Amino acid sequence: MSQAVVERLREVFGERILETSAFRGDDEVVVAPSDWVEVVTFLRDDSETAMNHFGDLTAVDFPEREGPRFDVLIFLRSIEKRARIRVRTRLRDGEPLASVSSIYAGANWAERECYDMFGIRFEGHPDLRRILLYEEFEGHPLRKDYPIDRAQPIVEYREVEGIEKLPPFGIEEGQPFARVDWESRLAGKDLQVSPSLAVQQGQRRMLSDSAIAEAEEAALESARESAGEG
Amino acid sequence: MEPRDEIVESTTETLELPTEPMRLVMGPAHPAMHGTIRMVLDLVGETVIEADVQPGYLHRGFEKSCERGTWAQVFPYTDRLNYVSPMLNNVGYALAVEKLCGIEVPERGQYYRVVLGELARICDHLVCNGAGAMEVGAFTPLLWLLKAREWIFDVLEAETGARVTHSFGRIGGMAKPPTDDFAERVRAALPKVLKTVSEVEALLIGNRIFMDRTQGVGVLPKERALSLGATGPVLRATGVPYDVRKDAPYLVYDRFDFEVPVGEDGDAWDRFSVRLEEIRQSARIIEQALDQMPTSGPVSVDDPRVMLPEKDEVYTTIEATIAHFKLVMEGFKPPPGEVYSFTEGGNGELGFYIVSDGSGTPYRVRVRPPCFYNLQGCRDMILGQTVADIVPTFGTINMIGGECDR
Amino acid sequence: MEFFGANSPRYDLARFGAEAPRFSPRQSDVLWVVGTISQRQGPVLKRIYEQMAEPKWVIAFGTCASCGGFYDNYATIPGVDKVIPTDVYIPGCPPRPEAVLDGLMLLMKKIETGDREPRVVPPRELPEVTRLRASRQGLPVGAEEKK
What we know:
- The complex is a heterotrimer of chains A (230), B (406) and C (147).
- Chain B has 406 residues and is mainly α.
- Chain B is 50% helix and 11% strand.
- In chain B, a hairpin with a 7-residue loop joins β7 and β8 (364-368).
- Chain B is globular and about 85 Å long.
- Chain C has 147 residues and is α/β, with parallel strands linked by helices.
- A four-stranded parallel sheet of chain C has the order 1-2-3-4.
- Chain B binds chain C through residues 28-29, 31, 36, 56-61, 64-65, 76-77, 80, 83-84, 127, 131, 143, 146-147, 149-150, 153, 163-165, 401, 405, and chain C through 1-2, 4-5, 7-10, 21, 23, 35-36, 38, 40-41, 44-45, 48, 70-76, 93-94, 96.
């Protein structure tokens, strides 16, 4: 990491560098989404920064934060200067970001992954489609409001008795104390889920709406039958 | 598909009749693809004119799974990221959390991490080179190298109790101190491994068939590799001497004398040779580390907020019982903040970008998978090559499904 | 990766005549499902199984293939048996090569006896424990301690 890069950016962009930080030696600058491509291009092309090695591009979801919801980060590195920098921008939900895949070839897949996992659209990306998940998948799993156990199978499960998950592989396999139930937290309910509540929530989630409707209908049917008998 | 006459005319003069490009789907369950990957190829004759590499068939929700347990519960998942060199991932993650908390592991623990990590790196390269050779028809090297891997596994098993998925790293140190005869066992195993590697080298280096299958195959130019974010042997084969252990030394890597092997052309042959040489360099590091390693002292920090208390204390004293309960059930709480920590994994720069909100659960764990970016270069490498060249190219990229797809 | 281990010279799967992987499901008898099966991989697995000629058997290699293991999330199928019928489950994450050999022998025994029930490879016990158990057979529980 290098402070010189941050200084150089300050010098050139001035007020457009919104924030800088160096927590634990990680130099970081924050820019507005509109300056994203310009800053990244400058970092690569300027002879003093010479960030020619693409590091990583990822996002973080902050649904509870006031203001923009997503942070998009790019990690860059210079082979000659041995410097590193992290550039961050903040995006509202649904707001597109200009793609940097034409600047760094490596950003191509990274942006596809961001789109896949967070639903952030990158404008000007040559081929923005899902990369880790499949086309049929709905939603974006790394958003905090996507429940971790909502699976979307594309192949029908066999219906044979006795192949359910047995203990200890139940729904509550994980650790209830530290687990945060984001669905209810975002709805303004419990912050920490009690184990029994988590089990109930899990079971309810496992029953899809149609299954619940079916079960209700069956209950009604049996109630009618017993009434008819009486 | 639309016929592509213009491509046919321009690229292949030897073709007697114009043909339509053929679409071939390779994978995701292809025997020569040790890793689940799908490649959609457009071929003219045998030549690849367009390729779409599709990872994701082993996506197991690593990053989401990390967000539901405690910080310590991430370790088993990191093991299974790169199941060929799990110890490197363990240490990489532990270093990231330690950077976030500002913890410095005792010197003996650092040396211990180096030795175990380098053993894991040797395992990784043994398997990669063995499997790569097997896929182009040389079965013997694979068997020999797997034999050598077993000797390393013996050491790792004696230390950690598991052959592959150790979960041995801890935030603030290692789970257990080294066993008494750790150094002797490593010193006994290394020469045997190096001898086997030399034998394999004699079988393959200079072997005309192997040379023809790998030299000039799957070339990745230097500038392109940098732009793609390639790291590790794939980048070093192109001639860039970038190794995190030299570039930004972590642990005690600045105290060792070792070289960073680089290639020239960035082809499959170079990647193979770089890995072969790295095995020797890792052995050098291990020897130096064993000489310098303190024989006594703690391997973990002495901080009850981070480390679990000793088991016999847990059973006998109430303080230790409470501390144990709090650490296991709530997890320890690092300060809020975000750090990016990077180490040299088996395949390149293994980075962990972690975000903490001050609670006992990670807010976000992002792993920078070296394979993912190395594999992205696969399209560049195979364009214009024949179908048969895909196998050695892909084999020397050493794509590990668990890490690439997470 | 431990499948490599089982194939390696030390454990030598070839002793059981199972060393040659067939490169097409059409020529295979046994399908080893090694590792986690993601939702995306599900249709592929099913198709491979359907391509195999009868008689055919399936071995679920490892906890992840058997029940999903701790990948209890949106991306993975909780066990291959949700998609295809499975004959032998080998526990372990990953299973030790010894367990793999046990699994193969279990499958052979199943084929020999015509047993079509799914079976789990039982854990091995230490030889001392086996000896102790044998020596205790016939004695009432706790009889030794009383002496």
